[in-house]
Specification:
heterodimer; A: 420 residues; alpha/beta; 10 helices; B: 200 residues; mainly alpha; 9 helices
């Protein structure tokens, strides 16, 4: 078995990307059926936590099935651990991986965006071309509801979300580092449901820790649309005792932002001035899921069968990851990873005319409260009556370096589980 | 952090095989494999943990797996991570998962250790061999587990938990072990972890 360091892994994936360029025909534009289907094929839309895992496990479950992954980004950047980039505890490079591992499993990776789904003819449109599938797995993540905050759509380049790890993460870290001591950093938390329930509060810890150690006269104001801390509330509130520079305001939904005056407005009309703003917008399922009519009555999230992740609205189309709702699970990377595996095994069973086994996801979720300590919540589930049911939720008794070390172990493992 | 990735090198080609019939038995066809999918995020595919903190459970002795699961689920071995997952394993069928992981080929940890630290650990290990035996493979008849090739971070953490009486606190059968651990300085615990991690 070959072992690769991360650097080698990236190098391998870079050469793999060259192959994909040829395969995707990045010279002549994609037109018509650009990769005719010869045998059974599953197309996966989205190479994040759910989609990358599903693509790999489809190949592990049955190597006779062709797997095509559509992912516009050439590299995967992990959202988990990206809050540590803001505080300078970690680098973005350490969270960035190529797709070469998936190619080594025989996944055909196209760095293209799916533009539409045609369930009736089992096709995915990619620009002017299309791909046929037997079954489709959609893992589009979340899209931001820019229109929910007045002034946000026009100010996307200045008002950062950094809620999809990548260039915005690096830019927000730069803004935080450049903020003068004595400045105010405003972080806004969207109403549930949103990606990564504890994420905003972990971010608050990282920003507050950074300010406390590097800009002691500065302040962090957290404006939360929710009535209380959404996840690990007691643990976060205990951690915040170390941060007198953190001002937390519950039930303060931000409805307007004005970069010209550098202030946000809450639904009660309160105005808050900022030097640096991090506005995490309200969210819904990725755009293609909405356009393909996979979302439910709320127009935001996709309802699925709990055993196969097949959409309740369209046959042969499965949805995994943050876009789904209705299961008693959080929108976490670990859950998306679990859904990707379960969905892959279920899809292979269905394609082989077998009944899928009952498989339950699990959730392991760490949050860093400073540069060396973390807290965690863990959820176990079972299948009962065809539905996912929680067995138990357990929290760490407090914060410690032990959980932070375990967080590193988890990340090391789960990144490989997805991509290597 | 340097993340070490493992690829299944050589066994799969970049070209896509477009066979129409069902494939030969793959890694997910083993009995119990579907139930074990919930474990691989932390413990790796087939239990081959790639990290320094989570133990390798590929090839684990079924008796040891079952004891660990039962102790975690009952709270005797306190772990906020493993208590819920152990309850999942009991729901899914502990015997199925014990058989599955026992049947998986085991590779020693990919985490590298310094040769000088290993040598210090070898010298210090004379206090351990009476139970774990010279080879480090333990003695199932006496309930002594195999330590060879486990990640050093995991081994060190377990020794520290024994030392602080935080693993199976109050368990009379572990009293002698914990007394011994209390006599070992923390830096020597790291040496011992490196040594047992290096054994094959």
């Amino acid at each position: 078995m070959a072992r690769l360091t991360r650097r080698e892994f990236l190098r391998t994936s870079a050469s793999g990307a060259g192959l994909a360029l040829l395969a995707a025909g990045c010279g002549p534009a994609i037109k018509g059926d650009f990769a005719p289907k010869a045998g059974r094929r599953v197309v996966v839309i989205g190479g994040g936590w759910g989609g990358a895992t599903a693509a790999k496990y489809l190949r592990l479950a049955d190597a006779s099935i062709e797997v095509v992954l559509l992912e516009p980004n050439r590299q995967f950047v992990s959202c988990p651990f990206s809050n540590l980039v803001l505080s300078g505890v970690r680098s973005i490079d350490g969270l960035t991986f190529g797709y070469g591992g998936l190619r080594s499993h025989g996944v055909r990776v196209y760095h293209e965006a799916a533009s539409a789904i045609e369930p009736d003819v089992r096709r995915v449109r990619v620009g002017e071309g299309y791909l046929e599938y037997d079954r489709l797995i959609v893992s589009p993540g979340v899209e931001f509801q820019w229109e929910q905050v007045d002034g946000l759509a026009a100010a996307q380049d200045r008002v950062l979300h950094a809620w999809k790890a990548g260039p915005q993460t690096v830019e927000l870290a730069r803004q935080l580092a450049a903020m003068p001591d004595g400045g105010v950093f405003v972080l806004t938390v969207p109403p549930v449901a949103y990606r990564c329930p504890p994420g905003p509060y972990e971010r608050a810890c990282q920003v507050a820790w950074s300010l406390k150690t590097k800009k002691p006269r500065s302040k962090l104001v957290v404006l939360d649309a929710n009535a209380n801390v959404v996840s690990k509330a007691a643990l976060f509130r205990a951690a915040w005792k170390d941060y007198p520079n953190l001002e937390y305001r519950a039930s303060n939904k931000v409805v307007k932002v004005d970069p010209s005056t550098r202030e946000v407005t809450t639904e009660f009309g309160d105005r808050v001035k900022y030097d640096v703003i991090n506005l995490i917008p309200p969210q819904r399922a990725g755009t293609i899921a909405v356009q393909a009519d996979l979302v439910g009555a709320d127009k935001r999230w996709c309802e699925v069968n709990h055993l196969t992740y097949e959409s309740v609205k369209h046959k042969n189309v499965h949805v995994v990851g943050d876009s789904t709702i209705g299961l008693p699970v959080p929108k976490s990377g670990n859950i998306a990873n679990a859904m990707g595996k379960i969905c892959a095994v279920a899809v292979v069973h269905l394609l082989n005319g077998k009944e899928p086994p009952a498989m339950a996801p699990g959730n392991t979720c760490y949050s860093w409260v400073n540069d060396h300590e973390a807290i965690a919540v863990v959820n176990a589930y079972k299948i009962e009556g065809g539905k996912v049911v929680q067995i138990e939720q357990k929290l760490t008794p407090g914060q410690s370096a032990q959980w932070a070390q375990n967080a590193v172990g988890w990340a090391t493992s789960v990144w490989q589980d997805m991509l290597a | 952090m340097r993340t070490i990735f493992r690829l299944i090198g050589g066994s799969l080609s970049l070209s896509v095989v477009l066979a129409s019939g069902p494939a030969a038995a793959g890694p997910l066809d083993a009995p119990g494999a579907a139930k074990a999918l919930a474990c691989s995020a932390c413990h790796g595919l087939g239990g081959q943990s790639p990290s320094n903190m989570m133990p390798i459970i590929a090839g684990i002795a079924p008796w040891y797996f079952k004891k660990a699961i039962e102790d975690y689920a009952a709270g005797r071995r306190p772990s906020p991570e493993m208590e819920p997952y152990a309850k999942y394993v009991l729901e899914a069928g502990v015997d199925d998962l014990a058989s599955y992981f026992a049947s998986q080929p085991r590779q020693p940890t990919a985490v590298r250790v310094d040769a000088g630290v290993v040598e210090r650990g070898r010298v210090a290990s004379q206090q351990c061999v009476v139970c774990h035996v010279e080879s480090g493979k333990g003695d199932p008849a006496k309930g002594i587990p195999d330590l060879r090739g486990q990640p050093p971070g995991y081994l060190a953490n377990q020794m520290l938990l024994f030392k602080a009486d935080r693993r199976n606190p109050g368990d009379a059968t572990l009293k002698a072990l914990k007394e011994l651990m209390k006599s070992i300085p923390d830096d020597q615990i790291a040496d011992l972890a490196a040594y047992y991690s290096s054994l094959r």
